[in-house]
Every structure is written in C-alpha cells, then in structure tokens.
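TL;DR need structure tokens for one chain.
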Amino acid sequence: MRNKWVFYLVGITFFVSTSGVNAQFSKFQFEIDSHSILDLEHSSEIFTTFSVVDSVIALGKTYLGKPYKYKTNVPWPLDCSGYLAFLYSKFNVHLPRSSRSLFNQTQGVDLNQIQKGDFLFFKGRNLSDRTVSHVSMVVEVNENSIKMMHSCSRGIIIDDYDKSNYYKQRFLKAGRLSPVSPL
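>> reply
TL;DR here they are.
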C-alpha cells in the first residue's frame, strides 16, 4: 500500500497527517503520494506545484508576527534560513541551515521568471561585501511587486521587495530549489 501525505487547510490553520483522514478537516483536503515527494529526480518539479508551495506558504504565514529567532520544537531558532528549514522540515525535506549553503543548493532564476516558492538571497549591511547573509521566500508575484516572507530583525514578516531599497541594494540572486534531500 502506498503512503499518502494528507494536507488540510482550514482558514489560516495548517494541519498535516501521515496516517488516516480526520473528517473534521476534510473540506480542503488534498493528497500527495509520498513516493513522489521522496523522488529526488523529480523533486524540483514537485516543489513548484500548487499544493506543496502553497502549503509551505500557508504554514509560514501562521508564524507572521513572531519575533526574530523565534523558538519552536526544532533545535534551532527561526532566523532567516532556520525559518525556511523549519517550514520545509514539516514536509520531510531537509534544507541547509545557512543562507550561504541554501544559496549554493538553488538554481539561479532571472527576476522576470520568479515564482512563488523561489528564494531571494541578499548580502548583509556592508554593501561592498558579496557574502550571502540573508534569504527570503517569494510568496506572491504580480506585475507590480514581489512579496517575500522572511525572518529578520523586525520578526517574521512579509515585505514587498520592489518597495524596499534596503533589499534591492543588497540583492544577490533569485534561486529555485534544485533536487532536495528528504530528512
């Protein structure tokens, strides 16, 4: 019998179950075959599909307003890369715990081709330094803006990249997940 991942979306509350179906939350139910999630050859396709990306974003939005380095049930605080690693860990996907390592694991994407689920990488306060020190995840793209969700000194928030001179000056790369490793 093939295992199915069952995801439930109710309002802004996110529920994940790997066994059984809870009818109380079945109104917005969708399933993903667990063998597909763990298929490394096709994982870059899987993480651009509607259900997984939107589910990661929905889970991420439940943490909006929490402080930078918020403590959860994982052994690391939710700084920028820790936040993204935490979100993806809920889908049994291992992401590197540093923005620099995540930068190296993604395939570059032109800003004109960016889509939900892609990452934006930035340098730190020193504009002349080319070292990656911050990462955010794209949650919305339209003709006028790119909205990014991230954990920064202001907490876990959504910013409009196009309206932020701070981040535009520090932009290094937009990246898309290449095949990832399951936990």
